């Protein structure tokens, strides 16, 4: 009898709990990985940036066309010599702990990005000499040298503002309980399970925040992620597989949201660090032959159902900085063979081709392998676990490394660190003084037309030298239920929660 | 008995020490550099060097081991390289999840495996026996991830009865918690139940042919009483030990199943840690699971002695 009573009580309690839960609206987002630490200075993963956008506003943001738009800052002005950037802050902005976001706080945040020992923002802000407070709502970044990509950095993690009080108290553990100035505030995180955020009542743009809670759930398996969306366990998922697009489009309860990505998939050629001194490293003609043997559109059709975009530059053909005078070339086996003959190499040219393990990556490698074979290349695919590829690529233990770059807003972020001689991610050891000079110039000049003209010259050199053979640009694939309204996909792949509501 | 216990407990310490040395050295064989993996796309050489120093990755391996051991002896398992969470806290978050999933799986395994084993032994050679054997073969040979995905398709997408993945703590909402764990528990329990069924069957067959069962039958006891009271009790002792060991294996994490159902238990923790070269987490989890496994072994041994007086020394 008492058991029955207990059970009755328990179920009554549960019903009442369910009742209160219903009044609250919760947006459940399925993400493809568990992010690293939620500290904008130390964070380094793409998936982490998705989570940041729910709770950590930045000085600036971007729109669909990659224009810089205000967020925590209202405007900026660069001095004529390009060495000073004055930023006006939005008034009456509060951090989640109630502290005001003023010029002092903004100065603190930027200095923290620049000085925290394990900050990965240091190199992004390396051009900044120091930060000055002009008045309570204005700061001035004084630069060592003019650096046009700086504004783009401030639309990402380097522009995220953290509460000075909370950051000072927590030190490098700040990411365990982050306090920012975004639409939602941090509630809890259970590693590999979920991250919970709730609406911040004092958010500067609170009228556009309609959902009470946001929960991020890392679900690694893409099939299971989609299954959760279909069964109603999730409201939105990122990184839908290209092969699942048909399935999503066929489901009347789901909406697919797409945008071209900022990054690319490319074949990094080991030019300067190849111990074996293979033909690819020694001759640009051999690299051009490999380039000509690849049919990019066929790869897109075969592996990605034609949903991605074939590419030949470090930005996609829809990007404002894409050089239309150098379009994607078709496959030309005869020319490739002729180039190999001109280079005087003995056939077949064997190539050590490193690729991170993964169905899609390996499929691309296999298609490249069979295409290049027709021109006279013998590609030996070496599928290596992702974590190991970093070490091997840095040590120069590859001839070709097929690798993805998630992309940055400014074209500099897709080129300089990979192709400037001695740059940190120039694993192929490419060095061309002329290209170096152009990349430096593009950093120093501010105007779009001027920069584009410099990049045009750079494109010409790089497409002849081919330190990286670009293959395709992914389409960002995000799916959500029809109940969710107001979702717009931006090219940086991040999920912006402001403005979203449930029907 | 006390003597025996003291001896067994004294053996645990060198075993754990050996396990810790082994896992520490095996990890060094993994290719890849933890600091580089941590940096990922952001490869700033100065910061990577800073990480190496901060986590003592620049020190020789024996020195790193001593630092780690010192920490462990004072209850500090270090912190995760990736998330900066203390490893102790991570383990405390995951242990209840793994315990719940493991116990549910073993319960399901017992509920299916033992009755099936008994039926097939008693009805040997009949359609029941073949059916049970077929089930066992199916259970052993069905890959967990495949069965898991099929169940998600049926129960979550088609029927909409259960959540496709995720976890809710028992303390938060027991119904939701059971709903979230029943499918993964079944997937795990199914494979073990097949093993239990095979063992129960052979143990029962042996017992059913023994003299005391013949005597019991000769006494005119009902068949039901012969099987349940006399035969089954004796046949089950080794099965319970087997169950305890299987539970130990489950507690070390059900890697694939946890991955499919996004259950944040030990298996998922350790797999992610290995892929991220998050050494402190791997070491902490392995040490804890080794301790749990050894303890369960000890409990099984003690239980055996309690049940079987002939083993008491």
Molecular structure report:
The complex is a heterodimer of chains A (503) and B (313). Chain A starts with a helix and ends with a strand. Chain A is built from 16 helices and 21 strands. Chain A has helices at residues 2-23, 46-55, 103-115, 150-153, 164-170, 222-230, 245-250, 279-282, 284-293, 296-304, 333-343, 359-375, 386-394, 412-419, 433-444, 448-465, and strands at residues 26-31, 60-62, 68-70, 73-78, 84-89, 128-135, 138-143, 184-190, 194-199, 213-218, 236-237, 254-260, 264-269, 309-310, 349-356, 377-384, 400-405, 468-473, 475-481, 484-485, 501-502. In chain A, a hairpin with a 5-residue loop joins β2 and β3. The model of chain A is unreliable at 6-22 (pLDDT under 50). In chain A, α10 runs antiparallel to α12 (359-375) and α14 (412-419) runs antiparallel to α15 (433-444). By secondary structure, chain A is an alpha+beta fold. Chain B is mainly alpha-helical.
What can be said about this structure in brief?
The complex is a heterodimer of chains A (503) and B (313). Chain A is of the alpha+beta class and 503 residues long. Chain A contains 16 helices and 21 strands.
Salient structural properties:
heterodimer; A: 503 residues; alpha+beta; seven-stranded mixed sheet; six-stranded mixed sheet; 22% strand; globular; B: 313 residues; mainly alpha; 0% strand
**Total strand count of chain A, please?**
21
Rg from Cα of chain B: 24 Å
Given as residue ranges, the uncertain stretches of chain A (5+ residues, pLDDT < 50) are: 6-22
- Major pleated sheet of chain A: 7 strands, mixed
Globally, the shape of chain B reads globular
Largest sheet of chain B: none
Task: Calculate the mean pLDDT score of chain A and round it.
Answer: 91
């Amino acid at each position: 009898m008492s058991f029955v009573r207990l059970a009755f009580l328990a179920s009554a309690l549960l019903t009442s709990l369910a009742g209160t839960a219903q009044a609250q609206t919760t947006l459940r987002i399925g993400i493809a990985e568990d992010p690293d630490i939620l500290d904008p200075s130390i964070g380094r993963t793409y998936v982490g940036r998705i989570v940041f956008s729910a709770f950590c506003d930045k000085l600036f943001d971007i729109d669909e066309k990659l224009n810089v738009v205000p967020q925590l800052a209202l405007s900026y002005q660069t001095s004529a010599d390009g060495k000073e950037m004055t930023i006006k802050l939005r008034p009456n902005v509060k951090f989640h702990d109630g502290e005001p976001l003023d010029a002092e706080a903004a100065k603190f945040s930027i200095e923290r990005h620049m000085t925290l020992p394990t900050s990965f923002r240091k190199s992004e802000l390396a051009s900044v000499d120091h930060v000055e407070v002009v008045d309570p709502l204005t700061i001035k970044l004084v630069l060592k040298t003019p650096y046009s990509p700086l504004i783009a950095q401030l639309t990402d993690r380097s522009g995220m503002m953290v509460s000075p009080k909370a950051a000072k108290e927590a030190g490098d553990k700040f990411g365990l309980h982050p306090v920012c100035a975004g639409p939602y505030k941090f509630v809890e995180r259970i590693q590999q399970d979920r991250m919970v955020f709730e609406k911040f009542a004092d958010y500067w743009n609170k009228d556009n925040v309609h959902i009470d809670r946001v929960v991020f759930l890392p679900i690694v398996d893409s099939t299971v992620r989609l299954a959760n969306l279909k069964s109603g366990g999730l409201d939105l998922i990122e990184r839908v597989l290209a092969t699942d697009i048909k399935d999503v489009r066929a489901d009347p309860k789901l909406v697919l949201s797409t945008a071209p990505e900022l990054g690319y998939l490319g074949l990094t050629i080991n030019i300067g660090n190849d111990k074996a001194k293979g033909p690819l490293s020694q001759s640009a003609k051999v690299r051009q032959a490999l380039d000509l043997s690849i049919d990019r559109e066929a790869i897109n059709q075969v592996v990605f159902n034609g949903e991605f975009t074939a590419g030949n530059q470090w930005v996609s053909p829809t990007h404002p900085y894409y050089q239309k005078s150098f379009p994607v070339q078709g496959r030309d086996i005869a020319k490739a063979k002729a180039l190999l003959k001109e280079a005087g190499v003995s056939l077949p040219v064997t190539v050590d081709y490193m690729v991170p393990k993964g169905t899609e990556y390996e499929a691309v490698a296999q298609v490249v392998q069979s295409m290049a074979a027709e021109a006279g290349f013998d590609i030996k695919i070496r599928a290596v676990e992702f974590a190991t590829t970093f070490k091997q690529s840095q040590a120069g233990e590859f001839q070709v490394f097929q690798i993805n770059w998630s992309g940055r807003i400014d074209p500099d972020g897709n080129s300089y660190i990979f192709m400037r001689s001695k740059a940190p991610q120039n694993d192929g050891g490419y060095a061309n003084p002329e290209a170096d000079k152009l990349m430096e110039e593009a950093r120093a000049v501010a105007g779009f037309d001027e920069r584009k003209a410099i990049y045009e010259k750079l494109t010409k050199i790089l497409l002849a030298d081919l330190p990286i053979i670009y293959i395709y640009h992914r389409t960002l694939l995000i799916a959500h239920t029809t109940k969710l309204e107001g979702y717009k996909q931006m090219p940086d792949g991040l999920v912006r929660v402001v403005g979203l509501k449930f029907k | 008995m006390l003597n025996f216990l003291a001896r067994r407990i004294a053996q645990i310490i060198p075993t754990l020490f050996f396990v810790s040395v082994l896992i520490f050295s095996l990890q060094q064989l993994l290719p890849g550099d933890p600091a580089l993996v941590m940096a990922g796309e952001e490869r700033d050489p100065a910061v990577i060097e800073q990480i190496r120093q901060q986590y003592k990755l620049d020190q020789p391996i024996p020195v790193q081991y001593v630092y780690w051991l010192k920490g462990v002896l004072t209850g500090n398992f270090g912190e995760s390289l990736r998330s900066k969470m203390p490893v102790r806290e991570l383990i405390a978050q995951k242990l209840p999840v793994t315990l719940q999933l493991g116990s549910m799986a073993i319960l399901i395994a017992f509920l299916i495996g033992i009755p099936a084993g008994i039926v097939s032994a008693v009805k040997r050679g009949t359609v029941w026996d073949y059916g049970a054997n077929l089930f066992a073969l199916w259970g052993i040979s069905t890959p967990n991830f495949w069965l898991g995905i099929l169940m998600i398709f049926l129960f979550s997408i088609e029927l909409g009865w259960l959540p496709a993945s995720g976890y809710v703590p028992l303390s938060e909402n027991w119904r939701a918690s059971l709903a979230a764990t029943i499918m993964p528990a079944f997937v795990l329990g199914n494979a073990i139940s097949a093993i239990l069924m095979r063992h129960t069957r052979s143990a029962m067959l042996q017992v059913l042919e023994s003299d005391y069962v013949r005597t019991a039958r000769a006494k005119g006891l009902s068949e039901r009483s012969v099987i349940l009271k006399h035969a089954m009790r004796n046949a089950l002792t080794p099965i319970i030990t087997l169950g305890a060991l299987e539970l130990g294996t489950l507690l070390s994490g059900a890697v694939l199943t946890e991955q499919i159902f996004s259950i944040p238990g030990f298996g998922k923790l350790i797999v992610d840690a290995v892929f991220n070269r998050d050494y402190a987490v791997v070491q902490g989890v392995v040490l804890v699971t080794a301790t749990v496994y050894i303890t369960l072994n000890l409990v099984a041994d003690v239980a055996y002695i309690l049940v079987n007086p002939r083993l008491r020394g």
